[in-house]
Write a sequence for this structure.
């Protein structure tokens, strides 16, 4: 009886499995696999909430982030949920705007570096030869810089500020993506469908962007999430050192800047704990999502 | 082997030259370091004279060649701010940085290797989830924020650890004193490195555990311990070595920020003050040094590869 039942169940699950495999689209498969990662789902929800709060900052922030509205260094109260800073600005409002700035910096820097990396990687991988060598040597050069040193030197040279930070991070973060894309192109170039395209005399642009690129999107996407996490960390570090986003504009990093003074560090934790924790939460959530995406997008992940 | 190393060094040279050119170009875009000297008490004439004395009146490519020529003679130039030789400045600050980096790397590996192997062997167990979550936390927490938390906890609340410098002022230091000053910076650097190392090692070991030769080893019945520590671990060395190689530039960068926070008297602190003073010769020296370190790191990684993995052929 029990054995029969088990057999029945097994049959059912097999049937179900076959069913799902035959009917669902690629995106559905990805989403189904993604959902299995509970931490990543929670992270998605957190990111959605924080992202939403950042976008809606002008509407939901209780005060103007740069206006002096309360007492100096006031502790959290009913009126100011997270207290006020040294010159009497509302910390909660600043925090909302800071999240907005930090996310913007991260997303824009990631976008720029992904575009640069993808184009250079495609060119290097597809053409090979001299072009490949020049691009890869250049990639080596950028990679051999201790990353933060380059960013610091650049940030001190060009006037620090939000858009310069975005550009600097964008122009420094691409080598990883370029290498990844190049490697994928090298192996794709040997596949029959690309060879077929070449034989059929398809234009180069079509082969590169419509045939090769879609087949490397998944790893690029996964890598881009880690670049996003890293560039948000870098923005925070730079702003913390006073070389990033400049006050009065709030960013998560420069809100922590005040904690370098001992009074703030010891007796006003509401000034530095929330922005710090917020960075950690954002970055960790992005990393979890990236990790789950890696699993969900990997075509081999269900063979085990 | 010798031929391979020679070839790699020959490839590294143009990369190095390229790096110095980029460095120099970026810095010349920035403007004159003499702007920092300007003030009401310094006459235009004095600045002009200083400019000529430092060779800053020439176009940037000539300045670059002058710098390169001097470098080939073993002269890295002199600091504009303090007139000290750059090589001497680097020499005196290198020790503390190497000490900090070395100890942090060691600590991170001591944490990451056992944790990574444990979590791969016990994949999908509660312990695995705990290790992976901790590793994500380690690599997601900004170094400076962790530093602040540690300072708050150990210096402000408990008062057991000093928060800045390498030795207590007014004493001659001594081993125990240096160790005390090192605890927090090492924790911060090691935590972020261990975070990424654990995940690399975990996935490397996971991949190896699925290999046929391990199934064979298991089928022979030689016991779980020997399968993992004799057969799997040796093969996992290759990715572990790569990870160490990749850490070197990261370490260098991480050290700059951490040294700043803890006032650790190393290269990072020196670099930060050189950057804010636009002390070009010093910045160039540090960039060159770090590029050399990174390239040597890559080379050593490749050679170690060949040593731990006999199937990699060096042409």
């Amino acid at each position: 009886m029990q054995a029969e039942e088990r057999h029945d169940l097994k049959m059912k699950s097999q049937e179900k499995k076959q069913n799902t495999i035959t009917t669902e689209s690629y995106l559905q498969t990805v989403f189904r696999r993604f959902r299995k990662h509970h931490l990543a789902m929670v992270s998605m929800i957190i990111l959605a909430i924080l992202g939403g709060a950042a976008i809606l900052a002008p509407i939901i922030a209780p005060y103007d982030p740069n206006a002096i509205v309360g007492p100096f260094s006031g502790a959290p109260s009913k009126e100011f949920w997270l207290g006020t800073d040294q010159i009497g600005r509302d910390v909660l409002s600043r925090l909302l705007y800071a999240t907005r700035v930090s996310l913007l910096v991260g997303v824009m820097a990631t976008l720029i570096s992904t575009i640069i990396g993808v184009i250079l990687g495609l060119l290097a991988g597809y053409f090979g030869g001299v072009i490949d060598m020049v691009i890869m040597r250049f990639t080596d050069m950028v990679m051999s810089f201790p990353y933060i040193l380059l960013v610091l030197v650049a940030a001190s040279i060009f006037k620090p500020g939000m858009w310069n930070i975005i550009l600097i991070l964008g122009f420094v973060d691409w080598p990883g993506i370029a290498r990844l894309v190049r490697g994928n192109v090298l192996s794709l170039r040997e596949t029959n469908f690309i060879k077929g395209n070449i034989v059929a005399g398809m234009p180069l642009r079509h082969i590169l962007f419509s045939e090769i690129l879609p087949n490397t999107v998944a790893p690029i996407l996964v890598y881009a999430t880690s670049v996003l996490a890293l560039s948000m960390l870098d923005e925070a570090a730079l702003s913390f050192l006073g070389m990033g986003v400049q006050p009065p504009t709030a960013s998560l990093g420069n809100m922590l800047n005040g904690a370098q003074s001992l009074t703030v560090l010891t007796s006003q934790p509401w000034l530095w704990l929330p922005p710090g924790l917020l960075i950690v939460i954002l970055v960790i959530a992005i990393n979890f999502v990236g990790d789950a995406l890696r699993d969900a997008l990997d075509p081999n992940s269900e063979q085990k | 082997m010798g031929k391979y190393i020679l070839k790699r060094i020959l490839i590294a040279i143009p990369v190095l030259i390229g790096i110095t050119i980029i460095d120099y170009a970026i810095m010349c875009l920035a403007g004159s370091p003499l702007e920092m000297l300007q003030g009401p008490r310094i006459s235009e004439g004095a600045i002009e004279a200083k400019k000529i004395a430092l060779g800053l009146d020439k176009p940037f490519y000539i300045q670059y060649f002058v710098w390169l020529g001097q470098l080939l003679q073993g002269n890295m130039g002199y600091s504009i701010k303090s007139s000290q030789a750059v090589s001497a400045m680097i020499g005196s600050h290198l020790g503390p940085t190497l000490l900090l980096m070395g100890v942090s790397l060691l600590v991170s590996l001591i944490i990451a290797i056992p944790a990574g192997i444990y979590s791969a062997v016990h994949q999908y167990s509660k312990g695995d989830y705990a290790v992976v979550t901790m590793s994500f936390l380690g690599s997601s927490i900004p170094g400076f924020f962790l530093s602040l938390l540690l300072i708050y906890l150990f210096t402000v609340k408990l008062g057991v650890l000093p928060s800045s410098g390498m030795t207590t002022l007014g004493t001659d230091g001594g081993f125990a004193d240096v160790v005390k000053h090192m605890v927090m910076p090492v924790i911060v650097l090691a935590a972020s490195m261990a975070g990424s190392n654990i995940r690399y090692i975990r996935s490397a070991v996971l991949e190896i555990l699925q290999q046929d030769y391990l199934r064979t080893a298991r089928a022979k019945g030689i016991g779980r311990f020997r399968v993992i520590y004799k057969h799997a671990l040796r093969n996992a060395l290759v990715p572990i070595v790569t990870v160490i190689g990749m850490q070197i530039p990261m370490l260098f960068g991480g050290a700059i920020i951490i040294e700043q926070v803890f006032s650790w008297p190393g290269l990072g602190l020196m670099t930060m003050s050189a950057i804010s003073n636009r002390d070009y010769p010093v910045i160039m020296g540090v960039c060159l040094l770090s590029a050399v370190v990174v390239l040597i790191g890559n080379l050593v990684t490749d050679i170690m590869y060949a040593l731990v993995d006999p199937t990699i052929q060096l042409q």
About this structure: The radius of gyration of chain A is 24 Å. The mean pLDDT of chain A is 82. The interface with chain B takes residues 39, 137-138, 140-141, 143-149, 152-154, 156-158, 229, 233, 236-237, 240-241, 256, 259-260, 262, 265-266, 269, 272, 276, 279-280, 283-284, 287-288, 291 of chain A (CB under 8 Å). Residues 91-127 of chain A form the longest helix (37 residues).
